[in-house]
Amino acid sequence: NTYVYLLDKTLIPGSEIDDAESAFNSQSGQGWTIDVTFKSAGLKVWLRYTTDHVGAQTAFTLDGQVLSAPTINEPITTPTTMVSGSFTEASAKSLADSLKSGALPLDFEVTSRQAVG
Fold it and tell me: Residue 117 — pLDDT band, cuts 50, 70, 90?
């Protein structure tokens, strides 16, 4: 399936990311994940947004392409957010490297998703 995402405006620019690292989390059963650490201003926006949008889907984008579209499981109150999904080692590292670049605009409000067959 191919998914079509309807994105809203950029909520947090990539310049508000302090760091991003991929890691294998065998204890949590999450597999490969990405830990994204926000700077102060980005964290304030992310805290407010994740508190108000638990259960909603969000997206990391680069040049209009969705790199990852995780669901917000709980309010994020710490500077570091763990992004989990069906990542391989290569895809987790690639997303972490893209996020670290700082040039990545992040679009966070996905209004709908439609599978196209």
Answer: very low
Measured CA to CA, the distance from residue 108 to residue 59 in angstroms comes to: 5
Beta strand extents in the chain (DSSP E only): 2-7, 10-13, 17-25, 31-38, 60-62, 65-68, 80-87, 105-107, 110-116
Instruction: Label residues 72-102 b or e (16+ Cβ within 10 Å = b).
Output: beeebeebebbbbbebeeebbbebbebbbee
Angle at 4 between CA 115 and CA 93, to 5 degrees: 100
- Give alpha helix (H) positions in the chain: 40-52, 89-100
- CB neighbour list of residue 91: distance below 8 Å, 6 or more residues apart: 32
Nearest to 95 by CA among 72, 61, 63: 61
Whether residue 104 is predicted with pLDDT greater than 70 in this model: the reply is no
Its pTM stands at 0.80
